[in-house]
């Protein structure tokens, strides 16, 4: 059963330069315990999507439309008070930069405790004990001492562990991780990815992983949704997507990253370029959003926006030309 | 969003179209140019309009139904506001309306001059201490020393050394304001020096004077402009205080501080003598501060980058 | 053997840190602590490592954006670390830089034309106003930007286009070496590929040497001839691309390579997960600086600092496990 069902999500912003259609008609679902990755480049709307799920979009200048059904409730119809009860409790979020999302003047322990006291109604002693338990769970050495430390006393990797501990403290059903390892060094990223994989097995929360790093996606996602210019252009199980991407944008994206070890196997080649730039989302786009940069685009694409169609088992893409079942070029 | 011209019948079979979605926000009318900027930043518009009005009042003071602001009329002392004397008359029978209008000249002159001179001096000192390490220590300790004296006391002390004149008032307040400006400029310069484009300019062989002129100075303009408005406002208040306590503009020149000082003794029976100059001072300071706040928001690069 | 374009000998840069207002004790960040390498003409040497390892400091030292604490930087046989200002200005033309952040690396108040003309004028490269114009349009063509863009300001461009402007500015001086300080790290995947391809094309077209500073090992492998791996201000391994990626010798290099997630779902990898974090460069560990995290640590590592030793034809490793080979410095 789907834990989260998003239907035609639109998040627009009023800006002096026009209406920014940051997310425009995105539908997807997340099953219980599943990891969905949302992939795309900056400005594709992946972060705005996640902020919309948490209803963290300031209105105005923004506005969210569509429906976000979480465990049977439409989040967009809830009062602010009901939404606050869900945030950090049923759905929690970890961000890219742990330093700015932790309060610098409160100890780490207090920040975990407060979440527990607000949402779970624990008393101080119980919350403290649980906080230490959470820090142990995320692999922080000497948790009894660390609870009394402030965020600046911790390294970047430690802070991200603390963020994960806070996010998991209330046993959320859904965890939204927005670029959780982007700000970290590669050896620390390896630690955090391993932690996330371990925790996924032990905690069982569904995860929405937002990232631009295809390596991270391959590592922990089960299903992948590719976004471009505020729209979903492709969705497939992770192995299927990497093996036979159907949307020209996804193909371009996969061709644009060099593979480690390619110089040894003789598969080194010039990187595939996606020519041009992302379209300006403040102007209405006629036809396919990718037509301006696509080698296959025809007049049809420039005039009619393609809908998502099935290209293979559980594999959908929004392209007029990527044939059903055909192996991608 | 698909265009309304979509005609699904013209599509070959087997093509799927994206669903049509509604617009969820009213369209934005994009305003450009100077008027568009003012619509987008109402505080700038309001502050600017108020200030412009006051400047016009000051310039055209003789033609706005005023009489000689220094003309004594002992027979018409302390008249209440009326059709003849809009703001009433003071203890010497001088028309307060005329005195307030002419007083605007002093306030605005002092405010603008101090803003210009203090910014210029602060810019020079801040640049030097931001670029020359050994000078930085000396200059900043000296500025710290000056800053430890409240600006108003410093201005009073400086005025005590000289004769009261508008020029000396400007000089005294400027000296009192310089430390804060130079600190600001220095911090801006230090942060600009860390910018990669400055490093790139060094790598491009640009000499230090040119780096200051081309890469540092233009980028300090925006914060300086905002700071200058605050200096202007604070200078006008300081001028009024100096004049009020008799250490500022000589009593022969009508200034808002002078008028209030003269009305002080009669405050409880003839409040209008103090009220009108005070109201004008407040409105002027408010206008300048509104302008400053608006400019700060409009020029803040982080705001410009956001959605 | 021909003279290398750039030689760096035992480079050290220690930044003082203010301990406190009344503290007499002066502490230093040992950002770069004895680094030696060289770059041949037309060669790409990559400097890799995690944040705080000192790789960017090395790049900035070569550009002489500050004075170094000790060591030598020799460009084409001439020392530039202590060159007089007038000599230095002429030497600067030969080493240019492309920075990471395409937004802060261009002066927002200047037109592209003036940004590109700055090095040309400074180094007196244009003979006349017409020549300047010819050079400017040629630069725009080289970095594949439209010529009309010369009259626009940086904020009108996207990140990738700004990075092209940054590259054009570096090329304007007709340099022999370009320091690319995380030059593609801040860019989106598809734009990154465009810039990587552009840099490769330019290198073969102009015979440029590149010092490619990056933490992205896949891009490094794609771009580079040789790699130097840094950890806490020291080079732990230098080798040609093939050796580094096929047979890394230093435990840190091995861990670094194994930690990169591959864009291949289900790929069999056994990442070496290093414990803990990088120690502070203010108090680097005694002995081998990597010993606090090294999975193969033994007693000697904690007391004695390993030196770079030849471990192959062109491979140099600083690790006690690579004993047997005679100690030497990485010349050639």
TrEMBL record, chain B:
Keyword Disulfide bond in annotation: no
Predominant place of localization: membrane
Keyword annotations from UniProtKB, A to Z: Cell membrane, Membrane, Transmembrane, Transmembrane helix, Transport
A Pfam family hit: BPD_transp_1
Biological process annotations from GO: transmembrane transport
Compartments where located: Cell membrane
CDD domains noted in UniProt: TM_PBP2
Topology in the lipid bilayer: Multi-pass membrane protein
Domain ABC transmembrane type-1: 108-292
GO cellular component assignments: plasma membrane
Annotated transmembrane regions: 44-64, 108-132, 152-176, 272-292
Family: Belongs to the binding-protein-dependent transport system permease family.
Name of protein: ABC transporter permease
Lineage per the UniProt record: Bacteria, Pseudomonadati, Pseudomonadota, Alphaproteobacteria, Hyphomicrobiales
From TrEMBL, chain C:
Domain of life: Bacteria
Key words, A-Z: ATP-binding, Nucleotide-binding, Transport
CDD domains, per database record: ABC_NikE_OppD_transporters
Main localisation: membrane
Record bears the keyword Membrane: no
GO-annotated biological processes: peptide transport; transmembrane transport
Pfam families assigned to the protein according to its UniProt record, in alphabetical order: ABC_tran, oligo_HPY
Family annotation (SMART domains): AAA (SM00382)
Membrane topology: Peripheral membrane protein
GO molecular function, one term: ATP hydrolysis activity
Family: Belongs to the ABC transporter superfamily.
Free-text function comment from the UniProt entry: Involved in beta-(1-->2)glucan export. Transmembrane domains (TMD) form a pore in the inner membrane and the ATP-binding domain (NBD) is responsible for energy generation.
UniProt-recorded name of the protein: ATP-binding cassette domain-containing protein
Organism encoding this protein: Bradyrhizobium frederickii
């Amino acid at each position: 059963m789907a834990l989260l069902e998003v239907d035609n999500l639109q998040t627009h912003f009023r800006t002096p330069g026009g209406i920014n259609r940051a997310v425009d008609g995105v539908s997807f679902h997340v099953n219980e315990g599943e990891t969905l990755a949302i992939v795309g480049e900056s400005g594709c709307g992946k972060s705005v999507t996640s902020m919309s799920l948490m209803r963290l979009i300031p209105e105005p200048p923004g506005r969210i439309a569509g429906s976000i059904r979480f465990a049977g409730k439409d989040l967009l119809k809830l009062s602010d008070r009901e939404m606050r009860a869900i945030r950090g409790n049923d759905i929690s979020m970890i961000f890219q930069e742990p330093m700015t999302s932790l309060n610098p003047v409160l100890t780490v322990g207090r920040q975990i405790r407060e979440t527990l006291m607000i949402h779970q109604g624990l008393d101080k002693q119980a919350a403290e004990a649980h906080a230490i338990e959470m820090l142990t769970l995320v692999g922080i050495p000497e948790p009894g001492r660390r609870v009394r430390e402030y965020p600046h006393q911790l390294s970047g990797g430690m802070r991200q562990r603390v963020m994960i501990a806070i996010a998991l403290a209330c046993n959320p059903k859904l965890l939204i991780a927005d670029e959780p390892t982007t700000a970290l060094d590669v050896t620390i990223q390896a630690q955090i990815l391993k932690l996330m994989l371990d925790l996924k097995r032990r905690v069982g929360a569904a995860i929405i992983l937002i990232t631009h790093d295809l390596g991270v996606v391959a590592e922990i996602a089960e299903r992948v949704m590719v976004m471009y210019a505020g729209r979903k252009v492709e969705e497939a199980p992770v192995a299927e997507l990497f093996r036979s991407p159907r949307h020209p944008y996804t193909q371009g994206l996969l061709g644009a990253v060099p593979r480690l070890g390619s110089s040894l196997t003789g598969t080194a080649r010039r990187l595939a370029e996606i020519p041009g730039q992302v379209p300006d989302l403040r102007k209405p786009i006629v036809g396919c959003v990718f037509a301006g940069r696509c080698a296959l685009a025809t007049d049809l694409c420039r005039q009619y926006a393609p809908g998502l169609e099935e290209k293979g088992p559980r594999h959908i893409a929004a392209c007029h030309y990527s044939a059903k079942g055909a192996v991608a070029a | 969003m698909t265009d309304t011209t979509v005609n699904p019948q013209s599509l070959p079979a087997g093509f799927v179209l994206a669903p049509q979605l509604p617009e969820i926000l009213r369209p934005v009318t994009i305003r450009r140019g100077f008027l568009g900027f003012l619509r987008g930043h109402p505080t700038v518009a309001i502050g600017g309009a108020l200030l412009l009005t006051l400047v016009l009042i000051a310039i055209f003071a003789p033609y706005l139904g005023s009489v000689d602001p220094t003309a004594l009329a002992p027979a018409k002392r302390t008249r209440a506001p009326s059709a003849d004397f809009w703001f009433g008359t003071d203890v010497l029978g001088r028309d307060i309306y005329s005195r307030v209008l002419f007083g605007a000249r002093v306030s605005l002159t002092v405010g603008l001059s101090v803003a210009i001179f203090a910014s210029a001096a602060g810019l020079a000192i801040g640049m030097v201490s931001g670029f020359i390490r050994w000078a930085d220590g000396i200059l900043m300790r000296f500025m710290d020393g000056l800053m430890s004296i409240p600006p108003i006391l410093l201005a009073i002390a400086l005025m005590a050394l000289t004769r009261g004149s508008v020029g000396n008032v400007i000089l005294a307040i400027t000296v009192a304001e310089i430390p804060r400006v130079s600190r600001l400029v220095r911090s801006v310069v230090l942060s600009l020096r860390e910018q990669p484009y400055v490093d790139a300019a060094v790598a491009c062989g640009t000499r230090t004077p040119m780096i200051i002129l081309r890469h540092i100075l233009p980028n300090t303009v925006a914060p300086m402009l905002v700071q200058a408005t605050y200096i202007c406002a604070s200078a006008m208040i300081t001028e009024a205080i100096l004049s009020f306590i008799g250490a500022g503009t000589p009593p022969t020149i009508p200034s808002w501080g002078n008028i209030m000082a003269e009305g002080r003794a009669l405050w409880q029976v003839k409040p209008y003598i103090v009220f009108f100059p005070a109201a004008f001072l407040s409105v002027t300071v408010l206008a300048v501060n509104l302008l400053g706040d608006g400019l700060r928001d409009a020029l803040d690069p982080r705001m410009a980058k956001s959605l | 053997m021909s003279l290398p374009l750039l030689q760096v000998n035992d480079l050290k840069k220690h930044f003082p840190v203010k301990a406190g207002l009344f503290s007499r004790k002066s502490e230093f960040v040992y950002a770069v602590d004895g680094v030696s390498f060289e770059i041949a003409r037309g060669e790409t040497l990559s400097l890799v490592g995690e944040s705080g390892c000192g790789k960017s400091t090395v790049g900035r030292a070569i550009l002489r954006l500050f004075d170094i604490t000790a060591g030598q930087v020799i460009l084409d046989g001439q020392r530039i670390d202590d060159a007089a200002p007038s000599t230095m200005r002429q030497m600067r033309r030969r080493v240019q830089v492309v920075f990471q952040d395409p937004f802060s690396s261009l002066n927002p108040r200047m037109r592209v034309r003036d940004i590109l003309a700055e090095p040309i004028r400074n180094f007196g490269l244009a003979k006349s106003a017409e020549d300047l114009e010819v050079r400017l349009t040629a630069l725009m063509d080289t970095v594949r930007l439209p010529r009309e863009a010369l009259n626009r300001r940086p904020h009108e461009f996207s990140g990738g286009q700004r990075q092209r402007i940054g590259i054009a500015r570096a090329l304007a001086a007709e340099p022999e070496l370009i320091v690319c300080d995380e030059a593609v790290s801040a860019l989106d995947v598809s734009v990154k590929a465009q810039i990587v391809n552009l840099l490769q094309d330019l290198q073969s077209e102009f015979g440029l040497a590149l010092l490619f500073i990056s933490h992205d090992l896949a891009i490094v492998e794609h771009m580079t001839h040789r790699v130097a791996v840094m950890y806490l201000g020291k080079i732990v391994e230098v080798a040609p691309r093939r050796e580094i990626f096929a047979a890394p010798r230093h435990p840190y290099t091995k861990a670094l390579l194994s930690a990169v997630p591959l864009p291949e779902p289900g790929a069999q990898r056994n990442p070496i997960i290093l414990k803990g974090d990088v120690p502070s460069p203010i108090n680097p560990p005694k002995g081998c600086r990597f010993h606090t995290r090294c999975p193969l640590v033994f007693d000697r590592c904690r007391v004695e600092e390993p030196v770079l030793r030849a471990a192959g034809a062109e491979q140099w490793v600083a690790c006690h496990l690579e004993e047997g080979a005679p100690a030497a410095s990485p010349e050639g």
